[in-house]
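Researcher: Next entry in the queue.
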Amino acid sequence: MRSRAWLAVLGLLLLTGAFAWAIWSYIVRTEQRSLPGASEQAVKLTWYHHFREEGARKWLEIGTRNYMEAHPNVTIEVISEDGNTYPYTLHSLAAVERMPDIYMSDNIQTLQEFIDAGYAMDMTASPALTGIPPNLLGGVEDKDGRAWAVPFDRNGVGVFYNRGAFAKAGIRSIPQTWDDFLAACRKLEQAGIQPIAAGYQDMWTLNLDIQPDMIASGIGEPSWLEDVEAGRASFAEDRGNFKGVLRRLAERFPYTGANPFGTSWNEALELLSDGGAAMILNGSWTVDGVRSFKPEADIGMFAFPSTDDAAASKFALKTTGGFVVNPKSRHADEAISLVRYFTSAEMAKVMQDNKKGISISPDAKPDFDPAYEELDRDYIRTGRVLDYSSFYPEFVNVELVAAFRNELIALLGDPKHDVDKCIAQLDAAFDRIRPRAGTAGGRVPR
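Model: Structure for this entry, 446 residues:
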């Protein structure tokens, strides 16, 4: 089940059928809008996104419907893409010059190539940023201080847990250290509850699973991932304490159930919602996902405890990414107007009530969901927050992303969970894709 050969097939499937279908589907839909004799509106906008949770979709649906009612000459087509293939699809749409009028970007790092290609509008002086505090623009600004996207919420990564499952296992307090976390997993298992729900069938969840640890362990070396990507550093140097991240991933893997790579993200959410599993390591959108299955689910969230220092346990939050306007759009002004509407106080409430995210609107309060009330009470108000808006805990190059993921899968498929072997294979895989500084054809060290 967990052999390297079998698991590697998953990565290949990611880049084939579903990806090709998404490109074809998008082009067909955009072409259909231009058929001779079709009923034409004055303005037609396409909006591309990667939200899969029901609440996020409802937020977009309500907002676009309201906007079209107020602007009867505007038609908006909202197109959803799976999170696994979203970045690949955007790359291909840019290559064939089919980029939508509006799309979503999670961070300035992955947006850079679209900025360079002319598919992201400089929003620095745009009215769409009116009222957004400058300190919340760090994740959408380049090194020159220019803003290329419009943020709308704060989100983060950590551990999302079912309170009823914890109570059933006799766990009376949130784990504050790594030893506490493993002890909680053992108690849950003894109580007949799967400790961790891992939806690794949707491969992006594996990357998110380790992000809380990568952030807590590596934020003191904020450029280490960037340097590894550029060939200026290696995994073997262990900047960002990455070996410890891999060890902890391997240590908790036995608690992910019998078939984590055969479990989808939605199945993992359902397990957490009904208490069949006690925890998910992922992003704050997990709350929305759980509510899709069981609105009344008694869930909360806590910081991933990556060390045995309880005082160091902080919840990782960021304000990055957001709405991107395509400057090559024939209706760029209308696209900006739509984005500005989505940053209004009216839509901030709709977003919090449905998407279950913390709006960056100055008047918004995180009292819209019990899970966020816990986050506010135990972390935000007490200052136990780790701001990683300027630290991107992933790689940008899609080949490197795939290689990274494949070696994580190999580590988990290895009965010995040999971290040193994984590190060596990561360096070898990356060196095959990009040159190492100081080697023939390599880059000059910074």
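Model: The longest strand covers residues 153-162.
Researcher: Noted, moving on.
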